[in-house]
Amino acid sequence: MTAISYPLVVFYDSSSRASVEKIEALLGRDCAGRLKFVCCPTPGIHARDARGRTWTGIVALEAAYRAAWDGQVSL
Predict the structure, then answer these.
(1) How far apart are CA 71 and CA 67, in angstroms?
(2) Counts for the chain of helices (H) and strands (E), in that order
(3) How are beta strands 45-48 and 35-39 bridged, if at all?
(4) What is the pLDDT of residues 28-62, one digit of tens each?
(5) pTM: predicted TM-score of the whole model, two decimal places
(6) Cα separation of 61 and 19, whole Å?
């Protein structure tokens, strides 16, 4: 498994209430500044790390939550 390189850029659909709620929870928790957030028109949540690797859906969300809580992410 490969560790994620930070920052992790999280792309989310700002017109989706569910996506916005998830991002708001992460915003209040990312004290180490491992996450960057970008609004985009694509449905769902996607993430890209500093090495250019990408994840979508639940895998992207899991990476973002782990980064916000403890920085220990291996996918």
Answers:
(1) 4
(2) 2, 4
(3) unpaired
(4) 888 888 999 999 988 989 999 999 999 999 999 98
(5) 0.84
(6) 10
Q: What is the DSSP letter of 51?
A: T
Report which DSSP code applies to 61: H
Q: How far apart are CA 28 and CA 42, in angstroms?
A: 24
What is the token pair recorded at 2? 């490969």
Distance CA 52, CA 13 (A): 20
Phi, psi dihedrals of residue 23, rounded to the nearest 5°: -65, -40
Q: Where are the domains positioned within the chain?
A: 8-69
Residue 2 neighbours by CB under 8 Å, 6+ apart: 53, 74, 75
d(CA 45, CA 60) in angstroms, rounded, equals: 7
Distance spanning both ends of the chain, measured CA to CA: 6
